[in-house]
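WP5 quarterly update. Target: Tetratricopeptide repeat protein. Source organism: Amycolatopsis alkalitolerans. Length: 628 aa.
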Amino acid sequence: MWSNRLLALSRWLRHLFGGSTRMPWLLPPWAASIPCGTRPFAGKERELQELNRLCLPSPRTRLITVVDLSRIGKTRLLSYWASLVGDRVLIVYVDLNWIISREQIEGVVTRLRETALGEEHLVLMLDNAVSAEQVMSLLLGRGNDVIVTSRVPVPGLAKASIELGPLEPAEAAKLVGWGVRRVLNRTCQRVEPDAAKVFRLLRAFTYPLPTATVAALANLAPGTADHALAMLANAGLVERDRGGRVYLADLHRAYTATGVGQEAPEAARDRLLRWWIASAVAAVNALAPGWAGSGLLPTSPRIRPQPFEPDRPALALGWRQQELPTAHVMIRHVAQSAPGAWTLAVAFLRGLFLLRPRTDSLRLLELGLDNAQLTGDPVGIARCEHALGWLEDVMGFHEAARLLLERTLRCHGRIDDPQGLVWTKHMLGQCLSALERFAEAHEHLRDAGQYFRATGQRFALAIVLVTKVVSLDGLSRTAEATEVAREALKYARALQNVPLQGMAHHQFDMLLYSRGDYSAASSQPESALVMRRRTGERSNEAKTLCQLGLAYYEMGEYVRASIALLTSRAIFIELRDITARSRWTSRWRTAASCSGEMKTGLTSAAINETLVLALVPFVAPTCEERHG
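Structure tokens (predicted):
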């Protein structure tokens, strides 16, 4: 483009000052080498084969014209061909844009003849020809071949002709790919080595990663990793989703797939897996210190897990819910056969005792169990089956949970995992209580409580005591159940653990309600509500509201009862908890038996009549509901 402009300027000046006026050449007319000989070229195999005929000597002068009608790059085609055959034949390149005057033509001919002396075969490239006379004046003797290029057919050059048409789609895609790679190569060369390392390692992950994981992924300090991400973002090499997580676009991932000198992806995956496990454990311990248990946290000075604040438990719960799909992907696609990957599933599910289990929680544990079985880890198998039994029980499948937990208990008897053994006893006791097999449940819960009391694990002991209240109440040992409930509440307050206090208050209220002490029962849920709202436990908040509504109803405070019950029902609908909603709805169908006083109170509270007719006088909660 610039050569054409300079040529036009030169011709205009000659016209302005007269053709006889001597003017210096704007550029030397003699090219010592062909431009851009190393740039890639896509397609045009037939044209290249035609040019290859000139590599063989001939007694006559052969002339080939290359016409670039589509302007895809005639000079680039010749440059590429010359780079392929330049070691077999001498090629001389002349850009005719600069051959204007007769003096210049004579000078070029002289140089050509000097070059041709002693050469048996020479290929002369005449680029940008405009007339046959211009070409003929530069022809050498026999045995030397000529390639002439032009943008339009040149009359008088009726020799072999190559017309360059548009590229085929595949050829065009290949050319675009080369161009994009050149751009990305230059972009990557301008970023720092740490940023380039992060860019390459992100290739192995097709899903967005939290920015905090990048330090573990690339084995960098957090500050260095943040700087590397900022540099990549400024260069347009990484993308971010709405949550701020980073990922590579498909184009960038395809580019890094052919890179060289990369770190083994297995090492990066291992660091990433350990980061997820450590962060899941940190989230559980933020909710309840020590709840994650021993043997789960990977030890590495370079692994810095996601930080959590103990006084903001809702953030830890929210993080676990948000990252649950990523945990699925980590085990299923990244660490399916990695030893210890099951730990991620167990650690993630530990904190979900505060939330209503979902189908994806069950699937995560199944993936963890698959990993433990694949790697032959008996501790992993036992712990995953224990967690699966807990999920089955919480979801209402008590008999299936009992069978699984009893099998897990036998498995624990063959391995050295005392912590897992006593937690399985605790869970089996809770399951048996739901099945109203209170005597068996009490034995398992007693053993678990003795172990945690002896080892000084007050948080775990409080959990067992809360569960033990149900079995004692079922055995009609009311006084002992009350003492145990008070002891659990005392531990929860001493530990200042918000989730545990909510659980203990709720269970104490259930006990008071079963004894008919409705006035006292209505005070405990108020405390439980405060705690459960602080942690964002929506499902447990709904259960506590139900219990509060029961107490208000028995006390004759129908307006307050209706507000609590309707709020509870709304939460169950919001959470799409079909099981819990059906359980409460089945009791609301007897609304016609409600007293006139209750209906009057509800109406005065401006409650929708349709919802009023859904309310029922609740009966005493079932054993399953007394678990809270």
